[in-house]
Design goal:
By secondary structure, the chain is mainly beta. It has a domain at about 535-650: Cupredoxins -  blue copper proteins (Immunoglobulin-like, Sandwich), CATH 2.60.40. Strands 8-9-10-11-15 form a five-stranded mixed sheet, covered by helices on one side. Strands 30, 31, 32, 34 and 37 form a five-stranded mixed sheet that branches. One of its GO terms (molecular function) is calcium ion binding. Its main location: other. This is Nitrous-oxide reductase.
Length: about 650
């Protein structure tokens, strides 16, 4: 019998090295075939990298995870939330940590008949409609989720997420975990990176989020109205600022290159985005002609002062002011709006350390991470630093395909290595010492295999001043043999890692329906939610159980009704064939978790009403006959009997 490796509980461990080698080789071959190897092969010699420590064996310092050590037993609650994007599903998801259990799916840019998102009048108003009342978009592509701040940490007020597909930003109220606003950003395509400011950049007395910054990845004609479609030399991308409260677009900045991710400083003064294609090329060869790309820093106060001084222009029909943040227009540091810090080609990801001292850009096509000192960027803007490249204080070699970096609050960074299928742990101060010439220092202190090809990685409270260094999650792009096969499309692998000790420990896998990207991990005690709504928050509420009625105004019928388990306020609703019908329903139950559903057979109507909430729907009575209305959400022992009749007369 062949010997099979087992884990600490005796469970057989599937061999994965061959698959990892296959994926790594394939990825590198693809890059090389596209002319993008950029020295990767030279960096991967037959010998282990000098910065890569040997993997620790049992008894050699490694700590095994004991069975059940991180279990969340029945009746117990998780200690953290994960708020995650969902990719081209268009929603935001909430997981519990450390269990990995799915707690909620928040519809944002997608249709969801369970809650009625995209069906009710209230949700359609938020999503945006055409003149005929149909939704303007029914698709979306969320990549990043970030929360609002007070004093450098999460305040449980808002979450924001992007729609890369249709250039929209959405806001989620954290007390309800529901989307309450969506704004379409003008003049952009490929809206990818997103990050709120952590305090006001102009008014030092405002110590909470006031703005959200949005990076557009794709060049496009400006305006995109049919002109210049065959002249890409006139195309460019825009960096956008959205007001955190009104969700109005405040301003935009024209930049060189394609923006990937966004980060912001704790003092509110700076926003940063990693740029590839700073050549502004539109063919691959043109995009690779420069030796380096850049991490671009925006001096927010100066941008807004320039707009106030009238140094802006508009594009097409948009009234949003735009300023020129290109490299050529910002040569004088003392007046510059932007600072282009050179970094290796095609950087992927920019993240700020919890102490606010350093921005880290990963190389992607270089095996390095670039550490940029916040203080030195400020000095460049003050005219006290000769070259923007002098703001770089470290550039350690950490492995192949570095993408995104998280932090533990103890001086360590954790970067995902796409080609190596690993998370690498490295020390920022050691990297700085090595960059200064100390050859005895090794920045890389640990690395762990993940399965497979990680994209984003994020740590518990790691995007705040309260980074606690407990958990790290690796969001992997492939799962292959990690779960039972369910056909060609596999779920994706989210792997939870314990980072409390010197050595990282893989705790468990949890699944994610494709394709999540980035997320944040928030302590459970930070999040404060409403369990029962206030009926007064809904202007169209049917507040009295005696106010159930049907009103007719020409061929428009308005139905006002209540629900209280196990009854609807109206046993029967009669309308005429061809009528436009609006039904408004208020849930009068006050018990937590006592939600009612409202579905009409054959009429494509289905939504829920939480306790003390009101929702409405409008549709045309285009089918004559008798149709049952029933509660679609279990609410009572007599749930099956909770019905009403919808009669459409000829």
């Amino acid at each position: 019998m062949d010997h099979k490796e087992t884990d600490i509980s005796g469970t057989p461990v599937l061999p994965d090295q061959g698959r990892r080698n296959f994926l790594e080789t394939t990825a590198k071959a693809t890059l090389a075939g596209a002319g993008l190897a950029m020295g990767l092969a030279a960096c991967k010699s037959d010998k282990p990298a000098a910065t890569a420590p040997a993997k620790a064996a049992e008894g050699d310092g490694a700590r095994a995870v004991a069975p059940g050590e991180f279990d969340v037993h029945p009746g117990k609650l998780d200690s953290y939330y994960i708020f995650s994007s969902a990719g081209h599903n268009g929603e935001v998801r909430i997981y519990g940590l450390p269990s990995g259990r799915t707690l909620k799916r928040i519809p944002v840019f997608n249709l969801d008949p369970m809650v009625g998102w995209g069906i009710t009048n209230e949700s359609k108003k938020i999503m945006g409609t055409k003149p005929d009342g149909t939704l303007k978009y029914t698709t979306g592509d969320t990549h990043h989720v970030h929360g609002s701040y007070t004093d450098g940490t999460y305040d449980s007020k808002y979450l924001w997420t992007n729609d890369k597909l249709n250039g929209r930003i959405a806001r989620i109220r954290m007390d309800r975990m529901e989307c309450d606003a969506i704004t379409e950003i003008p003049n952009v395509q490929g809206f990818h990176g997103i990050f709120p400011d952590k305090r006001d950049p102009v008014d030092s007395n405002i110590n909470h989020t006031t703005r959200v910054f949005c990076g557009a990845e794709f060049h496009s004609p400006q305006p995109n109205d049919g002109r210049d479609v065959n002249d890409p030399t006139k195309w460019f991308a825009l960096f956008t600022c959205v007001d955190a409260e009104s969700m109005d677009v405040r301003w935009q900045v024209k930049v060189d290159g394609n923006m990937d991710l966004v980060a912001t400083s704790y003092d509110g003064k700076l926003a940063a985005t990693n740029q590839y294609n700073t050549e502004n090329g539109y063919l691959l060869a043109d995009m690779m002609s420069a030796e380096r790309d850049a991490c671009v820093f925006f001096n927010i106060e100066r941008v807004e002062a320039a707009i106030k001084a009238g140094k802006s222009f508009t594009i097409g029909d948009s009234k949003v002011p735009v300023v020129d943040g290109t490299h050529a227009a910002n040569q004088d540091p003392k007046t510059a709006l932007t600072c282009y810090v050179p970094v290796p080609k095609n950087p992927h990801g920019v993240n700020l350390s919890p102490d606010g001292k350093y921005f880290v850009c990963s190389g992607k096509l270089s095996p390095t991470a670039t550490v940029i000192a916040t203080e030195l960027v400020h000095k460049w803007f003050a005219g006290e630093l000769k070259d923007p490249r002098d703001a770089v204080v470290a550039e350690p070699e950490i492995g192949l395909g570095p993408l995104h970096t998280a932090f533990d609050g103890r001086g360590n960074a954790y970067t995902s290595l796409f080609l190596d299928s690993q998370i690498v742990k490295w020390n920022v101060e050691k990297a700085i010492a090595q960059y200064k010439g100390d050859k005895s220092v090794q920045p890389v202190v640990d690395r762990i295999d993940v399965h497979y090809q990680p994209g984003h990685t994020y740590a518990s409270m790691g995007e705040t001043k309260e980074a606690d260094g407990k958990f790290l999650n690796a969001g992997n792009k492939f799962s292959k043999d990690r779960f039972l096969p369910v056909g060609p499309l596999h779920v994706e692998t989210e792997q939870l890692i314990d980072i409390t000790g010197d050595k990282m420990r893989l705790i468990h896998d949890h699944t994610a329906y494709p394709e999540p990207h980035d997320a944040i991990i928030v302590r459970a005690d930070v999040v404060k939610t409403k369990q029962v709504s206030d009926m007064n928050d809904f202007p169209n509420a049917v507040k009295s159980m005696d106010d159930n009625r049907v009103e007719r105004h020409g061929n428009k019928v308005f139905v006002y009704m209540t629900s209280q388990a196990p009854n609807y306020g109206l046993a029967e609703i009669k309308v005429k064939h061809g009528d436009e019908v609006t039904i408004t329903v208020t849930n009068h139950d006050k018990v937590e978790d006592l939600t009612h559903g409202f579905g009409i057979e054959k009429y494509n109507v289905n939504f829920i009403i939480n306790p003390q909430e009101t929702h409405s729907v409008t549709f045309k009575a285009d089918k004559p006959g008798a149709f049952w209305i029933y509660c679609t959400h279990f609410c009572h022992a007599l749930h099956l009997e909770m019905r009403s009749r919808f009669i459409v007369e000829k």
